[in-house]
Amino acid sequence: MTTKESPQAVDAGMPSFTELCQNWHRAAENLDRFNRMLTTDAKIAQTPKEVVWTLNKAKLYHYVPVVPEQDRKPVPLFMVFAIMNRPHVLDLRPGHSFVEYMLRHGYELYLLDWGEPGPEDKNMCFDDYVLEYLPRAIRKFKSVSGAQEFSMLGWCLGALISTMYAALRPDDGLKNLLLLTAPLDFSDQEAGGFTRWSSNPAFNANTIVEKLGNVPGEMIDTGAKMLKPIENYFGSYSMLWDKIENPGTVEAWHAMNTWVRDIIPMAGGAYKQLINEFYKENKLMKGTMQLRGETVDLKKLKANLLNVIAEADHITPPCQSEAVMDAVGSEDKEVLRVRGGHIGIMAGRGAEKNTWPHIEAWLAERSGT
Predict the structure, then answer these.
(1) 58-63 and 109-113: which strand pairing?
(2) Considering only 17-21, 250-254, 275-279, 300-304, which range has the smallest mean pLDDT?
(3) HSE (CB half, 13 Å, CA atoms) of 124?
(4) What are the structural domain ranges in the chain?
């Protein structure tokens, strides 16, 4: 004997027309939100600051302190970012900003923004950054702050510049040096990172610069993304869609994407030097690197050193940062290994739990009177 299911039983597992409409509306809202995240800019780098010095395109910023003067650390922190990116990632968004974090802990903060090179800057090289721009900015910073000793934080190529400065000007008041994902040692040509492209004999930086002058930021950005194409071109957007209804995740993604999209060119002279003298010839670690006739001897670097290495860094593999610990003359030196990538260790979700507190604690011990 058979029985027929009632219409109500058949329809029990199906959404109603009202529910269907609600789902369509929700999907449309999500799609609109997804599109806005891809095509608009978030508000980033909002912490109040003032310009205290300029040279050509470069600017030196002083962040407005947030704690009383008597509670501030006596040794200020001078921050140097890479020359082919905006430094806004240090102050990504309110509530998730390394700058905010350090200000709350009583540090006087200064940031050197290299600016965007124009066609007239195509011959600028590391000699200019290390021996002209950086010393002049530091002289102004000392005048404004009144401090004779200072700490310096260098990230990516900013770490390379800071390292060479610290070795060439060891008696200029630099007390503490923090290196973040520092590309310094290129002896391992199979290490990955940009050596994948630069070690190819057909890769000719001189020809690129001869044809283009300054190297477009889009070219460098594409090279970086192609080191992990699936993750960079698909994974990031897939994650955004999966989390599109999570406001916190969407806000964080939007801020990071805004910074990533704001790319600038790299001065042609510096690009040639980076590929030829660092990546291909490894002059810094060999002790043969010269800037305006001065040899960069890492043994002369004597500042207290914290070397922060990202264990999953595909831009600066850990091996490019490790060997400097044996090369420098610093007596007080430490390596901090952090799980994460080139940018994530300082701007990712775990940065304020894993990286920032260690940096602050290390610096606090060395920033007293």
Answers:
(1) antiparallel
(2) 17-21
(3) 25
(4) 46-365
pLDDT at 319 over 50: yes
Between CA 163 and CA 297 the distance in angstroms is: 10
H or E element that contains 85: none
Mean pLDDT of 137-144: 96
Other C-beta atoms lying within 10 Å of the C-beta of residue 33 = 16
Query: Which stretches of the chain are DSSP H helices?
Result: 7-11, 17-39, 98-104, 126-128, 134-145, 157-168, 195-198, 205-212, 217-225, 229-230, 236-242, 247-261, 268-273, 283-286, 319-322, 324-327, 344-347, 351-354, 356-365
pLDDT computed for residue 11 by the predictor: 53
Q: Given this model, what pLDDT does residue 192 score?
A: 67
Residue-wise pLDDT for 105-138, tens only, equals: 999 999 999 999 999 999 999 999 999 999 999 9
Question: CA distances (Å), 318 to each of 1, 136, 192, 199, 298, in order?
Answer: 74, 32, 10, 18, 19
CATH fourth-level superfamily of 46-365: Alpha/Beta hydrolase fold, catalytic domain (3.40.50.1820)
The model's pTM is: 0.90
Active-site residue list = 156, 313, 342
Q: Please answer whether residues 115 and 56 qualify as being in contact, where contact means their C-beta atoms are separated by less than 8 angstroms.
A: yes
Name beta bridge partners: 321: none
Task: Determine the average pLDDT of the residues in 150-158.
Answer: 97
* Closest by Cα among 110, 88, 91 to 261: 88
The two three-digit tokens of residue 245, written as one number:
């209804």
The residues, any chain, with a CB within 8 Å of residue 321's CB and separated by 6 or more, are 179, 181, 182, 183, 184, 185, 307, 309
What phi and psi values does residue 250 have, to the nearest 5 degrees?
-65, -45
